[in-house]
Structure formats: structure tokens, C-alpha cells
């Protein structure tokens, strides 16, 4: 009888250890600044072309050498049908413009 109880306890413990749990280290579809963006290209605010484009759009760029994403769109539902990015996946501090996202950091999908 004791063997049976020990076997049941071991089986329950192994099931509990094998059950899936959410992990914080897996990529999601959001950053602390908003959704992960897929940008056609990423450049720097020190690039004269970027500075000119921002000026034409009335966007004030921060200090020199800040990464800027061009033509970015949010990536939705990573892992569920398409949520992929064929260009550069980034998290950006300012996604307020549809053409330029400011303060971007690369993200691994």
C-alpha cells in the first residue's frame, strides 16, 4: 500500500514539473514602448538624408547617432500566422510618425 502511495505521489510530482508555464524570456509582440515594429530600414539621425526627411515632415530629431526606423509597421501576433518581419524588427521609443520611428533598438524574433 505504501508503494502505491509513493508511486502516485511521484507521478503527480512529475506531471506538475512537466506542465507548461509562461516564460518571460520569450519574445512577445510588444516592447515597453509599444508594439514591435518591422521597419524597411534602420539608419542614424546623423545621416543627412534622414535629417532632411525629418525636417520636411516637421519632426524634431534628438541627439546625433540615435537609431531611426523608416517605413515601420507594427508586427502583430508573433507565432500566429504571419507575425514575421522580412526586414528589421525593432522596438522604438517614438512611433508617432508613420514614416519615421525614433530611438529604435533591434529585436530578435
From TrEMBL:
Its main location: secreted. Keywords: Cell wall, Disulfide bond, Secreted, Signal. One of its GO terms (cellular component) is fungal-type cell wall. This is Hydrophobin. It comes from Collybiopsis confluens. One of its GO terms (molecular function) is structural constituent of cell wall. Self-assembles to form functional amyloid fibrils called rodlets. Self-assembly into fibrillar rodlets occurs spontaneously at hydrophobic:hydrophilic interfaces and the rodlets further associate laterally to form amphipathic monolayers. It comes from the Eukaryota. Residues 1-18 form the signal peptide. It is found in: Secreted, Cell wall.
